Automatic annotation (TrEMBL):
Decarboxylates ethylmalonyl-CoA, a potentially toxic metabolite, to form butyryl-CoA, suggesting it might be involved in metabolite proofreading. Acts preferentially on (S)-ethylmalonyl-CoA but also has some activity on the (R)-isomer. Also has methylmalonyl-CoA decarboxylase activity at lower level. Belongs to the enoyl-CoA hydratase/isomerase family. Its EC number is 4.1.1.94. It comes from the Bacteria. It comes from Jeotgalibacillus alimentarius. GO terms for cellular component: cytosol. The lineage of its organism: Bacteria, Bacillati, Bacillota, Bacilli, Bacillales. This is Ethylmalonyl-CoA decarboxylase.
């Protein structure tokens, strides 16, 4: 199975378990993440959902290029992009605390997953990058729209348009990374949230509702949908398919 779901203390930990694919997302991983979100949503004992990757090399390398490169048309790509975009919207608006434990490299869609979370905790030395532009597409799971909510506009725009790989130190300075740790696993960093877990579930949920009301008034879901549509338009262009072929044949 390409993922695991387990509980520890007040946290539900979702782990992408495809280390041989640098924890790339495929349909199975999408379904697993949606399952984890639903479980966290419905379980009153869960106060946080933590998302991480198996092994120490990659948090998530984005969508599985070999699998999703089979999607050629706008319609085909939109179905995949919309599915994951809907899941990340649920992560972002979940009535629990959400945490990305970035224990390895995060590339492309991996950064979008991290952006959907309330907290981004990174292991020291990891690198991250919104590199989608190098493949002649934009962010397509709603992560670009969410990044504009997380960072000052000029900083978010820079990260998206430069499409470069950055150190965790740089991203911490920008405010994208909340904290760096030496922990190797999600279980090892849970104690960081000891103060959060002392709060009752209804208190944490109420604070998330405040944030969600702000986003609803700013049409977050519609803006994410526009991003997904624009990415699907670019997806079917020759420039994208040629860039992916070049990457896969390196």
């Amino acid at each position: 199975m390409g993922y695991t779901i387990r509980k520890k203390n007040h946290a539900l930990i979702f782990t992408i378990a495809r280390p041989d694919k640098r924890n790339a997302v495929n349909n199975e991983v999408m379904d697993g993440l949606e399952k984890a979100v639903t479980e966290a949503e419905q379980n009153d004992a869960v106060k946080a959902l933590i998302i991480t990757g198996e092994g120490g090399e990659a948090f998530c390398s984005g969508g599985d290029l070999q699998e999703f490169h089979q999607l050629k048309t706008q319609k085909e790509s939109y179905e995949m992009l919309s599915k994951m975009g809907g899941i990340l919207y649920r992560v972002a608006t979940l009535n629990k605390v959400t945490v990305a434990f970035i224990n390895g490299t995060a590339i492309g869609g991996g950064c979008e997953i991290a952006t959907a979370c309330d907290y981004r905790i990174a292991r020291k030395g990891v690198k991250m990058g919104f590199v989608q532009g190098n493949l002649a597409i934009t962010t397509g799971w709603g992560g670009g729209t969410l990044l504009y909510e997380r960072l000052p506009l000029n900083q978010a725009f820079r990260l998206l348009t430069e499409a470069k790989i950055h150190s965790e130190e740089t991203l911490k300075e920008l405010g994208f990374i909340d904290q760096t740790v030496n922990a190797l696993s999600a279980e090892d960093m849970i104690d960081l949230f000891e103060d959060v877990f002392k709060k009752t579930g209804p208190v944490l949920s109420a604070y998330k509702k405040m944030l969600n009301r702000k986003w609803a008034s700013g049409d977050l879901r519609d803006r994410m949908e526009s991003e997904i549509h624009e990415c699907s338009v670019l997806w079917e262009k020759d420039e994208h398919h040629e860039a992916v072929e070049k990457f896969l044949n390196k």
